[in-house]
Write a structure and sequence with these properties.
GO terms for molecular function: peptide transmembrane transporter activity. InterPro entries: SBP_5, SBP_5_dom. The chain is an alpha+beta fold. The protein has 27 helices and 31 strands.
């Protein structure tokens, strides 16, 4: 083992020093080596575990540019609810009668790890190493996969097939697994797997992971069209692989912008102002920083282009409910009538902030993804000081000399904490404080250093009122990625809600998005034990209580789009409106600044809705696309939505000639360029062709996809046999119909045969998420 570690260190030293001089870089007829000025700093320590060991917390491997040189098994787009296969070309899921499940992943052959001089074939053993270490060493995926079953739960079937047994099936954890970045070549990490196999104590395994695995100086190996060719104290350079290796990636990314930008340098300059200076001077051609409207206007006056994408980040004001009189829901809801959200957003600039009209922790443009059962109960903010005064007076409050008082004569006032330096929050929050003060509720805004605000005041719930981010979601179907987590309370709202307690609740009576009253109706779900399915119970016809812990658990445990999932989301949204745990006043629009001599990002916005245009020209982690963990270059290059000016981007070419739907339909579905997302294909073709002044080939017939029929027989020890035949869209382009039959014998004991009768065996082939999308469109 010691020999392996020494070899790893030597390889690390060699790989860091690599600069491609002998290899031939892939380029296009029109190509640029571009630089982006990143507003953070690079903490690079040569020959350290914090370089390329991704089991370490935030190594430089996760910094801009470098992280994009690792690839996931697949991408998942929460906006469209669609997958796009990457290292894996297909996968199947079997949910078994005893509640466990099997995920079988089929990998693409012919891909290689590359460090600048050498290669290692990519196989299932590399995937095995990563997840075996995660599960047995770090306890990942618990309780669905468990330490003591690691050898059973993760199995290599052959060099290009790997199988995962979830001891308890999770409807969502398999998505996380598929979208992890692969960074563990088997020859490099074999020593860690073999050591863990000999450990039988979980505490010993955890200690080994933290004292050995996280201390290992891993050599750098890329698994991507780009690799890190050079790194220094303040820069990372990534370069396209040599032609013979690069060609193998074209099967995954047939429409791409790679060859237009063969080298990307990430220059870490330490701040927004420095990034702005570098793009003005020509040192950088691209930045992605939240500048003020005035700063963006200055850039535009010097010929720099600025466009905004939907960031899905939202902002809100939390009032601590553990203080009188703010523990009264009606008092908290006074904000709905006192604050003008349009004016709040405009105080910073409507180019960068979009006002919210409803109190739901989701950006306004995501609401189209929610079912009508939820959107119909949203009521608009009214901005009506007369109504606000009537509410307070009905509760015994009174106004005197421009100041509101509680019934016992105490002035109604608040101290509002804000994150210092986050000027796009500080300015609007200060405006809101002034507006509340003008109404008669004195609010004193106080800026607090961001780290202190989060680690002290938010963590300990030590505030009267707080301005901060709200717990965003990208779509209804992916609310499970954020709303069920404890981070809602610690990292967003502030730790002032004890979710083990019952909280006041009522359902809103809403007509045409106007609130007309409140009522109570019990609500429960139907998930199997040990989940507590009681979400809402009533004291009378207008008032009840909600168990927030149960609601969050159901959101996490229910299948996205299912009836139980929808019920839990309904309860969550209704409580947010009734109790106002955080007054959501706006959504962030993210500005991107670039030199138009190098990029054309704007063509898609001439022909597509903003959300879809963002996905086409700038797919990234900003849209919470799982499998993409960066919001900087080269993310937009993978799906071919950008090219130098005067060049038709690859996706635009595929739209014009129709091949996006006749040949690359998975691209179209993943990015939302299909009729189910409101796209008129021929109108889109005509618009894009007009933009580039070229003719187009109309797509006159519906896209034809092949089907694969899978029949799976699952036999459990309870002698219950169930067979299901599922027809799903296949990634295979063959027109033949294939029938596959497999038998799986389960030796894990079944706890209750009574539960088995109600369980349906599901076989999911890639892209069978259409059923979930159909639920979303109800």
């Amino acid at each position: 083992m010691a020999t392996v570690r020494v070899l790893g260190i030597l390889l690390s030293i060699l790989s860091i020093a690599v600069v491609l001089s002998a290899a031939t870089t892939v380029t296009s007829a029109v190509s640029f080596n571009v630089t982006q000025a990143v507003s953070s700093t690079l903490l690079y320590v040569p020959n350290s575990p914090s370089d390329w060991n991704l089991f370490v917390s935030h190594p430089i491997a996760q910094d801009q540019g470098a992280y994009d040189t690792y690839s996931p098994l697949a991408y998942y787009n929460p906006v469209t609810g669609q997958f796009y296969p990457a290292l894996a070309y297909n996968w199947t899921i079997q949910v078994l009668p005893n509640g466990s499940g099997i995920l079988t992943v089929y990998l693409r052959p012919g891909l290689y790890w590359f460090n600048g001089t050498a290669t290692i074939p990519f196989t299932a053993w590399d995937v095995y190493a990563e997840f075996y270490i995660y599960v047995k060493g770090f306890g990942a995926f618990y309780p669905f996969m468990q330490f003591q079953y690691a050898d059973e739960d993760i199995r290599v079937i052959n060099n290009y097939t790997i199988q995962f047994l979830f001891q308890e099936w999770s409807p969502t954890d398999w998505i996380y697994l598929l979208t992890y970045h692969m960074f563990t070549p088997w020859p490099v990490w074999k020593w860690a797997v073999e050591a863990l196999k000999n450990i039988t104590s979980q505490s010993e395994a955890l200690a080994f992971a933290h004292s050995n695995i996280t201390k290992f100086v891993a050599p750098y190996w890329a698994l991507n069209p780009y690799y890190v060719s050079k790194v220094g104290s303040n820069f990372i350079i990534i370069t396209l692989e040599p032609q013979n290796l690069f060609n193998s990636w074209l099967e995954i990314y047939p429409l791409n912008s790679f060859t237009y930008y063969p080298t990307v340098t990430s220059l870490f300059v330490g701040g927004n102002t420095q990034s702005m200076t570098d793009i003005l001077s020509g040192t950088a051609q691209f930045i992605y920083v939240f500048l003020s409207p005035q700063q963006n206007a200055e850039l535009e006056s010097h010929g720099i282009k600025v466009f905004t994408i939907y960031s899905y980040d939202i902002y809100g004001i939390t009032i601590n409910p553990n203080q009188y009189p703010w523990n009264i829901p009606a008092v908290r809801r006074v904000l709905y009538y006192v604050l003008n959200t349009t004016a709040i957003a405009a105080s910073w600039g409507l180019q960068s902030l979009l006002p919210a009209n409803y109190n739901i922790p989701a950006a306004p443009y995501t609401l189209v993804t929610f079912p009508s059962s939820i959107t119909n109960m949203l009521f608009t903010y009214q901005y009506n000081w007369t109504k606000a005064a009537e509410i307070l007076q009905s509760l015994g409050f009174y106004e005197k000399n421009g100041q509101w008082y509680t019934p016992n004569g105490t002035p109604l006032q608040l101290q509002l904490l804000m994150p210092a330096g986050f000027t796009n929050q500080v300015v609007p929050a200060t405006y809101a404080a002034e507006e509340l003060t003008a109404f008669g509720i004195k609010v004193t805004p106080v800026s607090v250093e961001h780290g202190t605000l989060v680690s002290v005041y938010m963590k300990n719930g030590q505030f009267q009122a707080l301005q901060y981010f709200a717990p965003k979601v990208v779509s209804y179907i992916t609310a499970w990625t954020n709303w069920p987590h404890s981070s809602v309370w610690y990292d967003y709202v502030g730790n002032v809600f004890n979710t083990s307690l019952a909280w006041p609740f009522a359902w809103p009576k809403v007509i045409d998005h106007q609130l007309v009253g409140w009522y109570c109706q019990p609500l429960s779900t139907n998930l199997p034990p040990p989940i507590n399915n009681t979400l809402v119970w009533c004291v009378n016809s207008t008032f009840g209580y909600i168990n927030l812990s149960n609601v969050q658990i159901v959101i996490a445990a229910a299948a996205p789009g299912s009836v139980d999932y929808e019920k839990a989301i309904e309860a969550w949204v209704a409580w947010w409106e009734y109790y106002d745990p955080q007054f959501v006043w706006g959504a962030k629009l993210e500005p991107i600044q670039y030199n138009p001599s190098y990029f054309d990002f704007t063509w898609a916005y001439a022909c597509l809705p903003g959300i879809i245009a963002d996905l086409v020209v700038y797919p990234s982690a900003q849209q919470s696309i799982l499998g993409m963990y960066s919001t900087w270059l080269p993310d937009p290059f993978f799906f071919g939505g950008v090219a130098p000016p005067g060049v038709i981007p690859p996706i635009a070419q595929a739209i014009i000639n129709g091949s996006l739907w006749t040949k690359y339909s998975q691209y179209a579905e993943f990015l939302g360029l299909t009729p189910q997302f409101g796209i008129n294909i021929q109108q889109l073709q005509a618009c894009v062709a007009s933009y580039f002044h070229v003719p187009y080939t109309p797509v006159t017939t519906s896209t034809t996809t092949s089907t694969a029929t899978s029949t799976t027989t699952v036999t459990s020890v309870a002698t219950v046999t169930s067979t299901v035949t599922t027809t799903a869209v296949s990634t295979v382009t063959s027109t033949a119909t294939t029938t596959a039959v497999s038998t799986v014998t389960v030796t894990k004991p079944v706890v209750s045969t009574a539960l088995i009768a109600g369980i349906v065996i599901i076989v999911v082939v890639i892209a069978a998420i259409a059923a979930i999308i159909a639920l979303r469109r109800r």
